[in-house]
Specification:
With 132 residues, the chain is α/β, with parallel strands linked by helices. It has a single domain, classed as Nucleotidyltransferase, domain 5 (2-Layer Sandwich), CATH 3.30.420.10. The chain is 41% helix and 34% strand. The protein has 4 helices and 5 strands; from the N terminus they run βββαβααβα. The chain has a 5-stranded mixed beta sheet. Helix 1 packs parallel to helix 3. It starts with a strand and ends with a helix.
Length: 132
């Protein structure tokens, strides 16, 4: 099974009230699950990582995929998860470790790709709805 996961996270004020949005589709593009929720006061980057970990948690409980393709509009998070940029911030290092643990729990091949915000509208709108 192939999953395409669109994630977004945002904070008003950075840091400020934050939320995540996740849209999970199968390889044919059919919607399997979507959700958005508030995550308290934090930064945009923490919100982006939280969206990834929450998506992996849902996948671990509901699917046994062979491949998971993540799509995010955060160039920084994608570059860090792909090992292109070092993670210097202590809080973000902990979140990267959490992502790696979740990846191991889910199994399969996981990839991360940067996409323009215009191609991440569904996840972005879930963030905005959650923030009100």
């Amino acid at each position: 099974m192939v999953l395409n996961v669109f994630c977004d996270g945002g904070a008003r004020g950075n840091p400020g009230p934050a939320a995540i949005g996740v849209v999970i589709k199968n390889g044919e593009g059919s919607l399997l699950h979507k959700f958005g929720k508030k995550i308290g006061a934090t930064t945009n980057n923490v919100a982006e990582y939280t969206a990834v970990t929450e998506a992996l948690s849902w996948i671990a409980q509901n699917n046994k995929p062979v491949k998971i393709h993540f799509y995010l509009d955060s160039q920084l998070v994608v570059s860090q998860l792909n090992g292109l940029f070092k993670v210097k911030d202590g809080k973000l290092k902990m979140l990267v470790m959490k992502v790696r643990q979740k990846e191991a729990q889910v199994g399969g091949n996981v990839s991360y790709e940067h996409i323009p915000r215009e191609k991440n509208i569904e996840a972005d709108s879930l963030v905005n709805v959650a923030l009100g």
